[in-house]
Amino acid sequence: MNADAQLMKHMMNPQNYGEIENSDATGIGKNPLNGEKVAIYLKVKEEDEPIIEDIKFQAIGCTTTIVAGSIITSEAKGVTFSRAEELISITLGMLDSVPPEDAACSEMVALALQASIDTYKARQRDSDFPMISYKISTDCTPKEEKQNA
Amino acid sequence: MHKLFQEVHELFLATQFTGFMSQTKSRESLYEYANIFFRHLTWLENDFIKREEDYTYNVNQIPIKVTQISDMYNNLIERINSIESKLEKCTDTNITFRMLSDLIYIKSSIQQLPQENVEGSFDTNREYPNVELTQEARDALTIFLFEETYKEYELIMVYNYSKANSSNAFLNRIFQILIDESFFHLRSFGQMMADMGILGVPRGLMEEIYKFDNLEQFLKDGIQEEIGAKEECKRLAEAVSSSSEYFASFFTFINNQENYHIALMEEALEHIR
Question: pLDDT tens digit string along A56-115?
Fold first, then answer.
């Protein structure tokens, strides 16, 4: 299956889209410039280190955000928090090499995942800890539009 | 009652998108049944509102990738059976009597619909029948169809929620026109997705999209979005004009329809100020 076919698969049937009732933690990644946001819900299994037993996401955003959410949550399902944080780090490290509008979408999903993990950790110390929300730093305006502005 | 409401919503979507797969007269029947299921949804919704009970438009993802349309028909029948078993959760017997009668008839009618091979609705070939698309036009059209089928579904549900929760006749007339228009657009784009082999049911809506606090801001944002959609249609009409006169005129037609949506939203805005 080539890259196009993989993308089409996620566009036609996004994986892990929706909400987990009674989730253990939720985190938000948002774009303060246009109101787009991603929410990630986690169900966590406590072993030697926490494992993401189930993960879902919802988004107010474009198709690229949905594809990024589908891919990243598929990768994060069933892995330890350390592995998920590596995944976040790899995603954030690749942002410079993609167009800004795509980078902003991936950053929003990666930060939502980080926020959900951080919310979970904080709630182990304080069960009333509020849901964490992170803002993206990438401006999603395409380069051509910036030049024309 | 919440589970019943969600399942009726999912049945509406599953039926509507099965209609897009069909290349026969079954499509018209499935569209009509989707309309009926949407009306059921609004009646149940009104029951929540009368009882002052909060509700959501949450739905589960609806898998529709099949090779034979009978697989979807069996799925729709299973969904109907599940709904029938939950009808007692609604205490308004006028609604449930009517719903049950509709469901029994539609279930038997679906069983009579002919078999069709619908692999082409999901083969991702992104070719359009009798049209030569450049790679640029193909990519632009693909993204447009995914963005807009979601957007039209979102608009249907947002205007429906606003209408259901408002007793203002002036605004409700406008909301109903916008719902009808969005249904037409959803159906146009959904059929195109099936023709291009990229059919998929749009994702569910986050609650804050339809449960907004500020109608004025919502209308202002809506006008900006319609202007953006007009521009996108114009760009698409230009991108596909060399490939297809039909597509170019279709997107110009859709673009011009957006003008009236903007006028209606401006009218609504004026009314609430």
Answer: 999 999 899 999 999 999 999 999 999 999 999 999 888 878 887 788 899 999 999 999
The answer to whether the beta carbons of residues B93 and B87 sit under 8 Å apart is no
Report the amino acid identity of residue A120: Y
Give the CATH number, domain containing residue B109: 1.20.1260
Same domain, B95 and B132: no
Instruction: Specify whether B130 is located in the same domain as B265.
Output: yes
Q: Does A8 touch chain B (CB under 8 A)?
A: yes
- DSSP per residue, B151-200: HHHHHHHHHHHHHHT---HHHHHHHHHHHHHHHHHHHHHHHHHHHTT---
Asked whether residue B182 falls in the same domain as residue B113, the answer is: no
Angle made by CA atoms A2, A7, A8, in degrees to the nearest 5: 100
- Of A52, A61, A42, the residue nearest A136 (C-alpha): A61
Query: What is residue A17's three-state secondary structure?
Result: strand
Q: Does B225 contact chain A (CB < 8 Å)?
A: no
Q: What pLDDT, in 10s, does the model give residues B205-242?
A: 999 999 988 889 989 988 988 888 788 777 777 777 77
Instruction: Please check whether residue B61 is in contact with residue B201, taking contact to mean a CB–CB distance below 8 angstroms.
Output: yes
Q: Verify whether the Cβ–Cβ distance A63 to B209 is below 8 Å.
A: no
What is the model's pTM? 0.91
Instruction: List the domain boundaries for chain A.
Output: 10-141
Q: What is the spatial distance between Cα A98 and Cα B204, in angstroms, rounded to a whole number?
A: 28
pLDDT at res. A143: 55
Q: Give the CA distances from residue B95 to residues B42, B44, B46, B89, in Å, rounded to whole numbers and listed in that order.
A: 11, 8, 10, 11
Q: How many CB atoms lie within 10 A of CB B73?
A: 22
Say yes or no: domain A10-141 is CATH 1.10.150.320.
no
Residue B147 forms contact with A (CB below 8 Å) = yes
Calpha distance A38→A59 (Å, rounded):
4
Q: Which of A5, A14, A66 sits opposite B124 (nearest CB)?
A: A5
Q: Does one domain contain both B88 and B198?
A: no
